[in-house]
User: What shape does this take?
Amino acid sequence: MKTIKGPALFLAQYASDEAPFSSWESITKWAADCGYKGVQVPSWDARLIDLSKAADSKDYCDEFLGVAKENGVEVTELSTHLQGQLVAVHPAYDTAFDGFAEPMVHGNPEARQKWAVDQVMLALSASKNMQMTDHVSFSGALAWPYLYPWPQRPAGLVETAFEELAARWRPILDHADECGVNVCYEIHPGEDLHDGVTFEMFLQRVDDHPRCHMLFDPSHYVLQCLDYLDHIDIYKDRIKMFHVKDAEFNPTGRQGVYGGYQAWVDRAGRFRSLGDGQVDFGAIFSKMAANDFDGWAVVEWECCLKHPVDGAREGAAFVQDHIIRVTERAFDDFADGGADVKSNREMLGIA
Assistant: This one.
């Protein structure tokens, strides 16, 4: 058993042009003041990190890590959620996703995809320079528009999509292996890897790649009505990262899983600040400890109601209260009468 590290905070939802969220120096101080011991860094945000420098310069990375340490936090992982999304984009989403990329590749899906691959490669190199073993990303999606199709999907459509997705990610996973870094896909609606079955379909096509892993976020499973506790046991050997995020699902006679095109506050399924939703975190943290999870408990704040700063401060305390400091001895050791091979055989009636 292992004690989970934490609490940590994913900074993507907090970085902005307003102090203290506008620079690496100030946002790390703020996170530590909230009670966090670590931060997960969105690699696309130039206000916080220069990704190209981080990939090329160990000195830059040492300075980057040093600022965080001096301010009271560790850097837990780098994220390429936005860049990973662009590794595979169905044409229906070209316009919407252009905003995730540099302006120079807007309107050019082929150039955008190459840019995205390069970005993830840079982040993996930067992770190596920072001596990190795990990295989080999205898989992107080619088959997502056909999730619940009418008319029915033609034979081979999904298989072709996953073969192409695997072909695009295989060189990235190989580079990750060279860097000694795991790629942890956040299993997430909107991605082709959105549940256990689709993760397995992808894993098979990358030949059980040793660097292909997942980030566990129970909030996405609540909204899919998926058993997130069973999921931990099934994939415990592939779960390398953990987003601590809450959610609730309250279906009515008017709407259910799909949400009726409503804004977040009006959906049956909503993300909530920690402790305000329905996720059984007591059971999750128990399973993580029992399964030897060796990573960080990283708060990802997303809530349609609560102020983000309140969510951050409450989230740090929530995670701290849920982390289980694992025991080094059995609770009934006091009753150990002592035994040896001879006495054990006598107790069993074995001559």
